UniProtKB/TrEMBL annotation:
Residues in the signal sequence: 1-27
The entry's keywords: Signal
The keyword Signal belongs to this UniProt entry's keyword annotation: yes
NCBIfam families: PRK11087.1
InterPro entries: 26kDa_periplasmic_antigen (IPR052022), SIMPL/DUF541 (IPR007497)
Name of the molecule in the record: Oxidative stress defense protein
Length: 238
């Protein structure tokens, strides 16, 4: 009889039992006194490397002429960089982008005016004191556009770990102070939500590269911030 009764329990009854059990667990969780805090950590680092991106653009009447003009500048720039001691692996050049250029008269159809060729080069500078030298080489080689200059740190992982530990310590300190202020005590951790690192690189003005910095305007004087965040729910003693 017991087995027969078990076989005839409807799915609806089983579903209700599962939901009721889950509600009991949720109720137990809600009844547990908790304290929620967010821990923040920041580390200020001095840049010791850089990455800059430049572009070479040429407008010519013929597509082949535009391509040849751009390729020549790219070749000269890469040669100058390697001659100055930079490793080839630190230089990344993009494929050629070639597009027709049109004039759009008020009356009439668009008129082909020529072709524009563009290539980009990204350079990783391991020795920050040579950044100005490489930027000067870019200008001397015929580079006519600076896309970005970002100052960075080589051992970024180390600073990220320091920021994370600072965030954890901040969360613990806040929780202890709040619990004490409300005449309670912490009783372990209920949950942790990690928000991951945030790195704010130093982005230099594009015009600065075209003008070049003087010797007393060292990039080493700049600072960058690496931050971290963690959300923690602590249990409180009843």
């Amino acid at each position: 009889m017991k087995n027969a009764f078990t076989r005839h329990i409807s799915p609806a009854v089983i579903f209700f039992a599962v939901v009721f059990s889950a509600l009991n667990v949720s109720a137990a969780e809600i009844n547990t006194p908790t304290l929620s805090v967010t821990g923040y950590g920041e580390v200020v680092a001095k840049p010791d490397m850089a990455e800059f991106s430049v572009a070479i653009q040429a407008d010519r009447s013929q597509a082949k002429q535009a391509k040849t003009a751009v390729d020549k500048v790219v070749e000269n720039f890469i040669f100058s960089l390697t001659q100055s001691g930079m490793e080839r692996k630190s230089i990344v050049s993009s494929h050629l982008r070639l597009s027709p250029q049109y004039n759009y008269p008020k009356d009439g159809k668009p008129v082909l005016n020529g072709y524009r060729a563009v290539r980009e080069i990204t350079v990783t500078v391991e020795q920050l004191d040579k950044l100005n030298t490489y930027l000067d080489l870019a200008l001397q080689s015929g580079v006519n556009q600076v896309n970005s200059i970002n100052l960075k740190v080589k051992d970024e992982t180390q600073y990220k770990q320091q920021a994370r530990q600072a965030a954890i310590a901040d969360a613990k300190q806040k929780a202890q102070e709040l619990a004490k202020g409300f005449d309670s005590e912490l009783n372990g951790v209920w949950s942790i939500i990690y928000r991951s690192n945030s790195v704010r690189p130093v982005m230099m003005a594009k015009a600065m590269a075209m003008e070049s910095r003087s010797a007393d305007q060292g990039y080493q004087d700049e600072e960058m911030t690496i931050s971290d965040q963690v959300d923690v729910i602590f249990k409180l003693k009843n």
